[in-house]
Amino acid sequence: MADELVHYEVASGIATITLDSPHNRNALSAQLRRELSESLAKAREDDAVRVIVLTHTGPVFCAGMDLKEARGAGAGDQGVNEFPQILDQLWTSPKPVVARLAGPARAGGIGMIAATDIAVAVKTATFAFSEVRIGVVPAIISLTVFPRLNARAAHELFLTGDTFDAERAAAIGLINSAVDADALDAEVERYVKALTLGGPKALATTKELLSKPRPATPSEGFEEMLALSTRFFASEEGQEGITAFAQKRKPNWVPQD
Question: Is the pLDDT of residue 99 over 60?
Answer without folding.
Answer: yes
